[in-house]
From TrEMBL:
The keyword Oxidoreductase applies. This is Adenosine 5'-phosphosulfate reductase. Residues 217-239 have a biased composition (Basic and acidic residues). One of its GO terms (molecular function) is 4 iron, 4 sulfur cluster binding. Pfam families: PAPS_reduct. Catalyzes the formation of sulfite from adenosine 5'-phosphosulfate (APS) using thioredoxin as an electron donor. It comes from Bradyrhizobium erythrophlei. Its main location: cytoplasm.
Length: 239
């Protein structure tokens, strides 16, 4: 069998496994989803990807209650707010996270494709590719499955995400697919989680500095991202 055929075979098997897991887990609680992921692939093969953004502490808290040693991948794009880096450190200490891996873009890619640091303006898809998509691909290489914090209530392409899906040769678990905004707020309140430092100054969703803006009255949280462009996803879930 050729490498391409082998890969296609593997992806089909993962996709079928994801569908049957989704049937079982579609009404499970977030912690049950994470427990199942851990049981199915084992800690060495499972990672959670977090932006340490405005809603991230909720998923990290649920994960930490299940197992604080699950590896957490954080994409440090080189364009993050200082407040986000500080928040990462606050949550590591507060939740007892034992394996947070801060992943940076490759230096040679930055020098070659974004020497003047203006790619976010001229070609944001390329900027996200070298600062997020490719680093995540490298970071996930040792893992068979990953967990992320997307929610259906965020709208757009997230409206119909399943709880478990195939992502190429990996399983992707979305423990918060079903949760409501009130559910997220309840986790923050119950655990007395600190808010992201930029929430008090009007940011409802925080990513890279050039591509995050304050939400205006009546806007959804993610409307402040890539303002004025048709882009609404960085590509790690869609590439
Ligand atoms: S969000 Fe903006 S700055 Fe960050 S990687 Fe994407 S385009 Fe570049």
């Amino acid at each position: 069998m050729s490498i391409v055929a082998e890969r296609a075979f593997e992806e089909t098997a993962v996709s079928e496994k994801a569908k049957s897991l989704d049937d079982v887990l579609r009404n499970a609680s977030p912690s049950e989803v994470i427990e199942s992921a851990l049981r199915i692939v084992g800690r060495e093969h499972l990672a959670l990807v977090s932006s340490f953004g405005t809603e991230s502490a909720a998923l990290l808290k649920v994960m930490a209650d299940v197992d604080p040693a699950i590896p957490v991948i954080f994409l440090d794009t080189g364009w993050l707010f200082e407040e986000t880096l500080a928040y990462r450190d606050t949550l590591i200490a507060r939740l007892g996270l034992r394996d947070v891996r801060s992943i940076k873009p490759q230096e040679d890619a930055l020098k070659r494709e974004d020497p003047d640091r203006e790619l976010w303006f001229s070609d944001p898809d390329a900027c996200c590719r070298i600062r997020k998509v490719e680093p995540l691909k490298r970071a996930l290489a040792p893992f068979d499955a990953w967990i992320n914090g997307r929610k259906r209530f965020q709208g757009g392409s997230r409206t119909e995400i399943p709880v478990v899906e195939g992502d190429g040769i990996r399983l992707k678990f979305n423990p918060f697919a079903n949760i409501s905004r009130a559910g997220i707020e309840a986790i923050y309140a119950q655990a007395q989680l600190p808010p992201h430092p930029l929430v008090t100054s009007g940011f409802l969703s925080v990513g890279c500095m050039p591509c995050s803006s304050r939400a205006q009255p009546g806007e959804d949280a993610r409307d402040g991202r890539w303002r004025g462009r048709s882009k609404n996803e960085c590509g790690i879930h869609t590439a």
